[in-house]
Amino acid sequence: MKRKYQIIGLIILIICSIVYDFQKPSVKDKQEKVYSYVILEGEFLKNGKYEYEGEKYVSDLVKEVGVSKQANLKALSLDMLVEDESRLYLPAQNEKAISLNQASKEMLMSLKGVGEKTAQKIIDYRKVQPFLKIEDIMKVSGIGEKTYLRLREFLCL
């Protein structure tokens, strides 16, 4: 009698196992697309949060989103990969825009709020690491987000 119940239990276990295998979601169903995002500001035709899938270069993003006729594309490094959860600012063309990678100390000092010491810090920074995007100016000691927001329309790469 005990043997009979063991066989019935085994049969029920096999049936449950087969039913579970049919209902179990496949690994392919569980894989979801992973999206990254970047915040676009300035002369992009679409400002705000922009979601993308996989790796994307700034040049591809510019083609997809579009830019206004006044956009200063010299302010962006187009061959750079877009960083997830970053912020890209594209200023308008400005004849007085100063190049972070090429400006002299005097030119940098002509910016409102940039003195001799800060201008020298910018020059010292770019000797070690060239600026790849305007936002990199915040990596210079003494320049925070407020200063960056005030200066960004007068800067280019």
From TrEMBL:
Transmembrane intervals: 6-23
Annotated SUPFAM superfamilies: RuvA domain 2-like (SSF47781)
Organism annotation: Longibaculum muris
InterPro entries (alphabetical): Endo/Exo/Phosphatase_dom_1, Hlx-hairpin-Hlx_DNA-bd_motif, RuvA_2-like
Residue ranges annotated for the Helix-hairpin-helix DNA-binding motif class domain, each copy included: 106-125, 135-154
Repeat is among the record's keywords: no
Alphabetical keyword list: Membrane, Transmembrane, Transmembrane helix
Molecular function in Gene Ontology: DNA binding
Cellular component per GO, a single term: type II protein secretion system complex
Name recorded for this polypeptide: Competence protein ComEA
GO BP term, pick one: protein secretion by the type II secretion system
Coiled-coil parts of chain: none
PANTHER family listed in its UniProt record: ENDONUCLEASE/EXONUCLEASE/PHOSPHATASE FAMILY DOMAIN-CONTAINING PROTEIN 1, ENDONUCLEASE_EXONUCLEASE_PHOSPHATASE FAMILY DOMAIN-CONTAINING PROTEIN 1
